[in-house]
Every structure is written in C-alpha cells, then in structure tokens.
Design a protein that fits this description.
α1 (14-24) runs parallel beside α3 (44-57) and α6 (116-126) packs across α7. The chain is an alpha/beta fold and 216 residues long. The protein is globular. The strands form three sheets. The protein has a four-stranded parallel beta sheet. It has a three-stranded antiparallel beta sheet with strand order 5-6-7, with no helix packed on it. It has a two-stranded antiparallel sheet with strand order 8-9. The chain folds into two domains: 2-152, TIM Barrel, CATH 3.20.20.140; 154-216, no CATH class. It has helices at 14-24, 38-41, 44-57, 65-71, 87-93, 116-126, 132-141, 144-149, 173-179; strands spanning 2-4, 32-35, 60-63, 97-99, 165-167, 185-188, 191-195, 201-207, 210-215.
C-alpha cells in the first residue's frame, strides 16, 4: 500500500511503474495504490493503458476524494478540478476501487471524523454517484472493496465471519447515506463496543400560539 501520484500534474506517471513492477514480480492482487490523482490529468489514451495494467496486476485503487477535493486544484482558475482519480473509468474496467478518509484534523485536512459513512457521501458527490447502482458501488467502496485490498476473507454478513459492524437507524442504505445518522450500536470482533441514542421532538402548531410535542 502506498501513496502514488498525489498531484495535478498529468506528467507524473508513477502508477504505471508500480503496475509494471507488480506484473514483473508476480505481485498480482497484492498492491494497493492510493490517491493516483494525476491519472485524471493525463490524456485518455494513456489513462486507459494504465488502467488496463492495473486490472491485470490486480492493483486496488484507494481514492480519497475527501482530502483531494481540498488539496488538489488549488492552482486552477475558472474551472477548478476536483482532484480525484478516474473513479468511473476504473470502476467500469473492473478495478477494485475503495474510498478512504486519508486525514483527520491534521495539517492537510482540518475536518474528518473517521466516519466511512461520511466518506461515502462526500465521495458520491465528487464522483457523480447518484443512481441506486452508483450508491451500491459507494457502499462496496467503504466495505467489501477495502477488505479485498487487504486480502481478508472473513468479512461480510454471513455465519462465521468476523463481526465488525455498525447498526444504523435507517430503512435502507441510500437513506443512511443521505441522512448520515450516528450508529445505534457498534461491534468490534463480535463485541459490542459503543452505543448511542438520539431523541427528536417535532412541534406542530395546533392553534395560534400553542404547540404540542410529537415523538419522532
């Protein structure tokens, strides 16, 4: 796992070298490259070639839109680049794409909560992920795809796998992504490690000057 080509300069082409070395050394499926922002600034023909090499080498791409939206494109005027890599093309090619937080309240990024739900939402904005299929991809990018990159095999909601999970108070994944609720319960290795609760009251006017609470 390494940070690669975190720059707006399309002439910086380290990712291709990484892919070539992975293929030459037989490190198929054992490499993860983070950021690779310059791939978005390169010409399309070159980018397609490198994406093909990444696919053959089984390289996982860890895109970090949360941080790169802030760091990249700062020198642009007028049409400012988003700074993210070619998420759509990598996804279409079948490359394993995951989303990362990268930074939390440091010199590069003054925000962040370490919430992968928040990461998925910001990444969805950056990568134009709006259809149900897109949102399912965003879910995979913060759950299954990182597990694939780390070569784990005991993940997922099935008997016998390691129980690292959150319970979110939402009827569906798209609603969880939209509403960003805090998790009700958090389990780590099958052990309950955190709980939270939120109480809301909505006041509806019944007559001028009068209100009554409605539990939500």
């Amino acid at each position: 796992d390494m940070h690669v080509d975190e720059t707006d300069d399309g002439a910086v082409r380290t990712l291709e070298m990484v892919a070539d070395e992975a293929l030459a050394r037989g490190l198929i499926g054992r490499v993860c490259a983070g950021h690779v922002c310059s791939l978005a600034a390169a010409d399309h023909e070159y980018a397609e070639r490198v994406i093909g090499k990444c696919l053959r080498a089984g390289i996982s791409i860890a895109s970090n839109p949360v941080t790169n939206l802030v760091l990249q494109g700062r020198g642009d005027r007028g049409l400012v680049r988003r700074g993210t890599t070619r998420i759509g093309e990598l996804r279409a090619a079948g490359v394993n794409v995951l989303f990362g937080q990268d930074c939390v309240k440091d010199g590069f990024y003054p925000f962040g909560r370490g919430s992968m739900l928040e990461v998925a939402l910001i990444s969805a904005h950056a990568a134009h992920l709006t259809t149900r299929e897109d949102l399912d991809f965003a879910l995979r990018a913060v759950t299954e795809a990182p597990a694939v990159a780390m070569r784990l095999d005991d993940y997922g909601l099935r008997a016998g796998t390691r129980a690292d999970m959150q319970l979110l108070p939402a009827p569906s994944w798209p609603e969880a992504l939209r509403l960003q609720p805090p998790p009700v319960k958090v389990w780590f290795a099958g052990r309950l490690v955190a709980e939270s609760s939120v109480r809301s009251e909505v006041y509806r006017t019944t007559r001028p000057g009068a209100t009554r609470p409605i539990d939500a």
